[in-house]
């Protein structure tokens, strides 16, 4: 049996550093905060801009991601579980900042307007799904607590917007079917 010499021994710090391979950079508290804040701002505006360029043909409410599921009960499940009607008006609309179509309020009962509103609600939902994904990038430079905070931010900033779209879109589609066949 071979004995381990002092030179051959690996200290616990070396093992610890090699296990935490995903942390490629070390940032101090303020720089970490600034990097995260600026990073999120750039990511969200960039994703929002990118999604405004997606053709309307990719924003069909019948597509898998946007389709209303039976368990959603035409969106009413979101009001029962999350009381969405009480807070949805407080959500910001980023589309107007990026030169897009605002879905903050339904401002017409015109058939074409309502169809466009439905497509834009799909665009808004897609934007917010995409805005959750960058949290994986933030895991590269954050310590575990930073990972948790960034994940919480990604979910808290985007899930309410997704819920609002999943609540509103079926109501618009039902109105369209009822009034315009």
What report would you give on this structure?
It contains seven helices and no strands. It has helices spanning 12-19, 29-52, 76-82, 84-87, 111-132, 135-138, 144-180. α2 packs antiparallel against α5 (111-132). The longest helix has 37 residues, at 144-180. The N and C termini lie far apart (84 Å). The model has no long low-confidence stretch (mean pLDDT 88).
Low-confidence stretches: none
Total number of helices:
7
Structural class: mainly alpha
* SSE order, one letter for each helix or strand: HHHHHHH
Supply Rg. 23 Å
CA(first)-CA(last) distance: 84 Å
Number of separate strands: 0
Instruction: Specify the overall morphology.
Output: elongated
Task: Summarize the biggest pleated sheet.
Answer: none
Helix content: 55-70%
Percent of sequence in beta strands: under 5%
Mean pLDDT: 88
